[in-house]
Amino acid sequence: MTPIPHEDVCPLPDMNLIRRPLLIFGAPRSGTSMLFQALSTHPDLWSLYRESQEIIEKHMHSTLQLHDTDELSAEDLKPRDAEDLVRSFYDRVGNAEASGSVNSKIPIILRARLNRLLTLGANDSKPSPIRIVEKNPQNSFRLPFLQRLFPDAHFLFITRAPDANIASIYRGWHEPRFKTCTLPSDFVISGYRTSSWCFGRPPGWRDMNGRSLIEICAFQWRAYNEACLRDIPQLAQRVLRVRYEDLSEGPRKVLAEIAEWAGLNPQPLDRFADGLPVVNTWSRPRADKWRSLAPQIEQVLPSVRNVAHTLGYLSS
User: Fold this and answer.
1) Which of 56, 179, 230, 252 lies 20 to 30 Å (CA to CA) from residue 137?
2) 2-16 pLDDT per residue, tens
């Protein structure tokens, strides 16, 4: 894991509700949910226990429609929007782990759902400021926006090797839960019948009209990671890169490093010493799971080679 330097941007007025949030970003299916579920159990962190689309997309709906992508810039964030967004995050996060209202032996996914239900309407007793953990792959296209919203944020950038990640994105396109919007009537994916787009809409997504599904998945992997690599240098020295492969193989070591970097007590995360929670998949992760799609992925690897090389996944 490598801290990545960046520069500060001009902050908005301080509401004193949220301090030093942990914001997780990276390509879809790169391990963001796995890490988010684990960090959401930490007693010092408050969480939505789900992705934040219903907050950001709701408040920024008109701007996103105008952009026709999931990208938001610092200039898109107006003071009134910032106040509404911070308040919405504050009002909706919960922390049943700290209150002891959920038994720690309950499986992580069920505990997260119960935590959310048990903490609804508990704002009268909620302290301020609080520290939250938030996850949304679309954050990859909104780093300057989020840095302006939370000037003291800590950012966790998760990466995954292109072959395995593209294969997982491809499988996700075949699951209804990952559908995000209806495609224009004239948008065609070669060899694949669908009326919906899955995962995020990077800038340039309409240029993929007529391409095959595997080409679109490779485009998504490249676009997410390109956006991250482009915008990270604009942020302050509060970015930590985490490799999915390291997180999967040695969760205790990686979570301890994250805790030290973020100023958290690592002990509550020891519960994941033997493995992180499995989320959004029907089978246990395997390093070679992607090989069933190897012929298709080999065809698109040249289109992602430069970004993969920059991230250290492919030799030149």
Assistant:
1) 252
2) 554 443 444 455 678
